[in-house]
């Protein structure tokens, strides 16, 4: 009996013991797998919990009609893999070239089943540590001063197994349907369960609640078989090409706009859904009325005893009865599993469906809890692409870099270059970087200047919302000023009511670059790192505080910012004005001349010629420079009143061949000046 009691107590203890990991990731969707990849590459202790038997379970059901609206562009005319990610909205970031989405579908708008296969391969080929069939049902805190953040996160699954972790990454996405309750809402079908067979709607009259892509996707599927479709929502339709927000209505789904504007029976209405009411008649038809007509009335008494709007206004827009009403109102975050101790609260206003987080993607209520993926979209809602794979693959990487610095002392990755490479470095990044391009106004490249502006440190894709915390968050110092590079649309070019096709909508001249409308690079210069107060008081609709200087690189029809006169020259002059230096590259002969005529050599001469570095010239290169006006033609100089002799010509050729003759006197001159 004693042995039996002992064994039973051990079983109970084992079931309640907590399994520890440094990092716990909830959800094996795209964001969870992306986080797992970076943690695994860094050699960290982590686990991913997935309630389904496979990753990406959301895509196994949604979108219901199986066509994704994230583009899969096969050909760009370029072989640069970083550039091509600008037009690949489905691939996750990894070192494995097999895991590019183009290998899973050739369709420009792929089928959702291809995404399911892709995510399964991403997890298996990279051997990510995903624990399937594990539904986390409760999350709470355990205070401990020895923990990374002053507490541990305690997670419990459906089998009452407990897990403990130091940092919690929530990547569960948005999967709880938005439901509006009003009288008669029990007659409404949900997007998540409605039939996808168009024949089930043949000859029917349909009302759709909602005006996002799921609503128009549903309408597109049944457009050709219904009597007519009406769509009602509290806000006007927002077209993605006008708002430049990929979450708004995409062209692939907007067939209903054609039939509405061309008067083919279908139509759009605006109204608050909470003011509606639905009454069902004896034939099963659904009548739309307003809530206040039903006040103090018994709806079960029958439709004949209820006043309908058309009884008072005989041309009421929705007076015709409907056969079906479909709810397509999107999704919201599931807060139910989080204990109040975590203080994970809903946002405010139009962000109420998202949890409240900081620009660092960390919960406002609990240190060490980060929200990734679609659920983190409150940081850039209706501004950028952070709610979609082609956006949050970069924000997830940014969160990983923040955690590496905070918990493991690994500074934000950076590269140090001589100041002569400043213009080239910026031009290279704005022409190929995909993170800057997709997460415009949200992620920025940071250039930290070294003392005396002789060199700079380049940090890629840092969240601009925490710029004031840069030194703490990255482990890098910024005592000598910095440049911040972001991509922006024009200030007044985006909006639901904007005409983005108006005549002269684009700017082509460098002097008007500040008026550019389409996506273009903007460089902010700060003499000192902005403070928290300056970040809070930044101008409306600006991604950053007012800088000491700002430069717009003029928009380009080909998004190719390499034109020498329109793009590179104005940028170089802006940088030179900020740094009070000359960033041009000079030939050795010019550097030799500057050594005798200037108090300070240009950086390219200091870092190249004065150190016996640089390209070795020749007669052909010198002649080209002379013809281009870059060098004086000293061979034509007549010092004696006559043309140069052949011996003089020979000495000039020898001078070009033997650069040491020029270098050594300059070195002696520099040493003499130092002494």
From TrEMBL:
Superkingdom: Eukaryota
Subunit and interaction comment: Interacts with SEL1L. May interact with OS9 and DNAJC10. Interacts with TXNDC16.
GO molecular function: flavin adenine dinucleotide binding; monooxygenase activity
Record family assignment: Belongs to the FOXRED2 family.
Names of the cofactor(s): FAD
One Gene Ontology CC term in the entry: endoplasmic reticulum lumen
Keywords in alphabetical order: Endoplasmic reticulum, FAD, Flavoprotein, Glycoprotein, Oxidoreductase, Signal
Signal sequence interval, chain numbering: 1-17
InterPro entries per the UniProt record, alphabetical: Auxin_biosynth/cation_transpt, FAD/NAD-bd_sf
Name of this protein: FAD-dependent oxidoreductase domain-containing protein 2
